[in-house]
């Protein structure tokens, strides 16, 4: 308990220090703005827009943006790089009363890109990739992401690597990981996103091997479930067989649960559960949550495992496969986030986020373990008898 209190006090102190720093920063900007500094006026507008050091106030933000536009245009014409980028952002993000104007934004970013500014190069990549104010042009997007990456700019390296890894040809795939190895900031961010979202790629097993190499190259702690050993290596060579982790069973609350350590997509796991006469597990109370955690706890790790929760029928409305109402929830931080990639949203839920029993939404195409629930403890699954009391399970 004392450790928790110390951690809470430290977190509260850190937050207070951050807020104090933001307040000081904002006051310094206001002083510069009062003295007529146009860039400070722009930054003050951002502070009101984002609530940094001051309460969020959209009216004051838009007034400040509009007030500084003329000054930014003058400085940009005089060749001021920072003012040019600020003005480009002004049009790209619809600040002020003029709304978005990607044509003007693109022209200004291009002016800054001539000076090899990494942020401007990256923004041009985004504009061409998404077709903002122009036709989509993947070749141009990759060109500008490459230029941004060449300057060492991590966001440019990360986005280019993601695009290359998602391609079908092996050369692009390998080149993408080489880029991440050469930029530790981009590489670690890629690993963070992978661990959080379990992003699906067609060359899944090959990607796992590359990711293991990347963890080692960047000297970053690898998640337990990714660490290879002799058993998993043998099963990978033999093909899609049962992994070293064995099936386990649990009787709890009048229901019978079976942990299936065979990696399947969410839909295949759902079909498999139905073929067994059960359904993907539903978790409707904190006690049931703890029981499922005990079933999945393997040497202190909770492996990524599908549960029977989805919003694939109505976006944003999560429902259990049995039709039970979603009342109890155990989402991880900032989840469900419904991350979208190439027009596909995250509609399926797994348990094991942050190596704990937290829930997270992701795409359904990543092969994970699953838990099958039967509505009676009299069900015989034909598995070795290993019913476990959740209070005694390690």
Structure description:
The strands form 3 sheets. Strands 1, 2, 3, 6, 7, 10, 11 and 12 form an 8-stranded mixed beta sheet that branches. The protein has a two-stranded antiparallel sheet with strand order 4-5. The protein has 2 domains: 22-217, Serine Threonine Protein Phosphatase 5, Tetratricopeptide repeat, CATH 1.25.40; 248-374, Mannose-Binding Protein A, Chain A (Roll). β8 (340-341) and β9 (344-345) form a beta hairpin. The longest helix has 33 residues, at 2-34. α2 (38-50) packs antiparallel against α3, α5 (102-114) runs antiparallel to α6 (118-130) and α6 (118-130) runs antiparallel to α7. It has helices at 2-34, 38-50, 58-77, 81-92, 102-114, 118-130, 138-150, 154-165, 170-182, 184-197, 204-217, 230-238, 266-275, 286-296; strands spanning 248-252, 255-264, 279-280, 297-298, 301-302, 305-310, 319-320, 340-341, 344-345, 348-353, 358-362, 368-374. Helix content is 51%, strand content 13%. Residues 1-20, 199-203, 229-243 and 384-394 have low confidence and may be disordered. By secondary structure, the chain is an alpha+beta fold. The radius of gyration is 26 Å and the shape is elongated.
């Amino acid at each position: 308990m004392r450790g928790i209190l110390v951690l809470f006090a430290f977190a509260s102190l850190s937050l207070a220090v951050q807020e104090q720093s933001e307040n000081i920063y904002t006051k310094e900007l206001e002083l510069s703005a009062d003295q007529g500094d146009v860039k400070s006026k722009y930054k003050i507008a951002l502070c009101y827009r984002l609530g940094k050091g001051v309460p969020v106030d959209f009216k004051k933000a838009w007034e400040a943006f509009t007030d500084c536009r003329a000054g930014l245009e003058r400085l940009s014409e005089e060749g001021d790089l920072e003012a040019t980028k600020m003005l480009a952002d002004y049009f790209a993000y619809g600040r002020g009363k003029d709304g978005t104007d990607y044509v003007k934004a693109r022209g200004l970013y291009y002016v800054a890109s001539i000076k090899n500014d990494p942020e401007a190069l990256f923004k041009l990549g985004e504009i061409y990739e998404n077709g903002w104010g122009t036709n989509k042009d993947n070749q141009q997007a990759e060109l500008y992401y490459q230029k941004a990456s060449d300057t060492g700019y991590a966001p440019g390296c990360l986005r280019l690597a993601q695009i290359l890894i998602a391609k079908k040809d092996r050369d692009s795939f390998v080149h993408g990981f080489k880029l991440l190895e050469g930029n530790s900031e981009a590489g670690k961010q890629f690993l963070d996103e992978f661990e959080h979202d379990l992003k699906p790629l067609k060359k899944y097993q090959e990607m796992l091997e590359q990711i293991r190499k990347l963890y080692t190259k960047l000297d970053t702690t690898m998640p337990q479930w990714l660490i290879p050993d002799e058993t998993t290596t043998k099963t990978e060579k033999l093909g899609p067989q049962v992994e070293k982790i064995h099936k386990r069973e649990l009787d709890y609350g009048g229901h019978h649960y079976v942990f299936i350590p065979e990696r399947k997509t969410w839909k295949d796991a759902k079909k498999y559960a139905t073929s067994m006469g059960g359904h993907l597990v539903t978790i409707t109370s904190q006690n049931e949550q703890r029981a499922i955690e005990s079933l999945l706890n393997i040497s202190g790790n909770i492996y990524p495992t599908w549960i029977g929760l989805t919003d694939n029928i109505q976006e944003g409305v999560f429902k259990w496969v049995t039709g039970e109402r979603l009342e109890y929830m155990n989402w991880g931080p900032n989840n469900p986030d419904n991350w979208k990639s190439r027009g596909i949203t995250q509609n399926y839920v797994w348990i094991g986020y942050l190596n704990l029993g937290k829930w997270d939404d992701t795409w359904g195409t990543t092969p994970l373990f699953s838990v099958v629930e039967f509505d009676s403890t009299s069900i015989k699954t034909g598995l070795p008898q290993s019913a476990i009391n959740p209070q005694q399970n390690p």
